[in-house]
Design a protein that fits this description.
Elements: E1 6-12, E2 26-27, E3 30-31, H1 32-44, E4 49-53, H2 56-64, E5 68-71, H3 79-87, E6 94-98, H4 107-119, E7 124-130, E8 144-147, E9 153-157, E10 175-183, H5 185-193, H6 199-204, H7 209-213, E11 218-222, H8 235-248
Parallel strand pairs: 1-4, 1-6, 4-5, 7-11
Antiparallel strand pairs: 2-3, 6-10, 7-10, 8-9, 8-10
Length: 249
């Protein structure tokens, strides 16, 4: 059996509506995009890590650190659209999308995504982890995940789901999305070929919902707990604290 080839593509745009310049925000003195690139390289090797961006400032930082930047259109609708565009420059069996605002991503979770995609080549793969006791399930910046007992995605929302008819304020645990995705080239071409955001995708502003409208199975895998993304400027301090804790262990 031949070994499937895999790469990581990190989508990074400068003009984020909630946090302009987010990929270059310094975390412990290092631009966030380099934290993500370095952790991704532990999983797949530096030569298989690519940053898909529309901004020369990001490209210059990435290339100065020895990584490859792929210039993509400023009109890309989502990070996955940007990954799809970048994939046209590359020849791999598996394309892993690691969002550029996940500086605490675990290389072992990236490898887990690759392994699952090898087993399920016809499915899209996405990570999740359980929310911690101090995290607010009503935080609209954190997509919550509902999946079947076989870990197939049913729905994802910025609202606190699932609900309870019994009136309990919250279920025992909420699951949240971790922005590690696994696709084939076919998945990416179908995604970008849709030509627009699907209705639910646009409403929730959660791009993976487009795959459900396209009829693709999305299978979820559990990631290491403690995932924190930088969605807004206030998140940077929390992530820096978590990075420091990691170094002190």
């Amino acid at each position: 059996m031949s070994i499937m080839s895999a790469c990581v593509i990190i989508p990074a745009r400068y003009s984020s509506s909630r946090f302009p310049g987010k990929p270059l925000v310094p975390l412990l003195g290092k631009p966030m995009i380099l934290w993500v690139a370095e952790l991704s390289s532990i999983a797949v090797g530096k030569q298989h890590v690519f940053v898909a961006t529309d901004d020369t400032r990001i490209a210059n930082v990435v290339e100065s650190a020895g990584y490859t930047a792929l210039m993509t259109s400023p009109s890309a609708l989502t990070g996955t659209d940007r990954v799809a565009e970048a994939s046209n420059f590359l020849n791999y069996d598996i394309f892993i999308n690691v969002q550029g605002d996940e500086p605490l991503v675990k290389p072992s979770d990236i490898l887990r995504c690759i392994k699952l995609k090898e087993v399920l080549p016809e499915s899209v793969v996405n990570g999740f982890c359980w929310m911690g006791s101090t995290e607010d399930p009503c935080n609209i910046n954190v997509p919550k995940v509902v999946f079947s007992e076989s870990h197939n995605l049913i729905y994802m929302s910025r609202s606190p789901i699932p609900g309870s008819k019994a009136g309990n304020e919250y279920p025992i645990r909420y699951a949240k999305q971790v922005s590690i995705y696994g696709y084939s080239k076919k998945h990416l071409m179908n995604f970008i070929g849709f030509g627009r955001k699907s209705t639910l995708e646009a409403y929730e502003d959660i791009e993976i919902l487009r795959f459900l409208d396209l009829g693709h199975d999305v299978v979820l895998f559990e990631c290491t707990s403690g995932s924190l993304a930088v969605d807004i400027p206030q998140d940077a301090h929390k992530v820096e604290s978590s990075l420091l804790e990691r170094f002190q262990k």
